[in-house]
From TrEMBL:
SUPFAM superfamilies: CobE/GbiG C-terminal domain-like. This is Cobalamin biosynthesis protein. GO terms for biological process: cobalamin biosynthetic process. InterPro entries: CobE/GbiG_C, CobE/GbiG_C_sf. It comes from the Bacteria. Residues 3-116 form the CobE/GbiG C-terminal domain. Pfam families: CbiG_C. Residues 66-85 are annotated as: Disordered.
Amino acid sequence: MMVAGFGFRSGATLESLRAALALAQQGLPPVTHLATAQTKATTLAPLARVLGLPLAEVAADALAATPTHTHSAASRETHHTGSVAEAAALAAAGPDARLLRPRQISPDRMATCAIAQGTP
């Protein structure tokens, strides 16, 4: 299971999300799932549909309980985690998940994506 976790600002576009995914996925096997915070799932759903991938909605308590490699002050304040992208990827990939790529930031700085590998 390869999970692309996403964090993004409210104005993020489908292009922002695609760009963050492309940066994070470079040199890695294709992702099999997308993940983000429950509160952000509606915005990520169109990308999941376009790619034909399932979307995991990660609860706020799971995000806060998942350690991350990178830290954003805005993410910490709003979602109680250092990186929504990393926490979502790791939480959705299961208890033995490992982060393959820390969050990558889209060129427009509107979206981040991290890749985790785990077992369902």
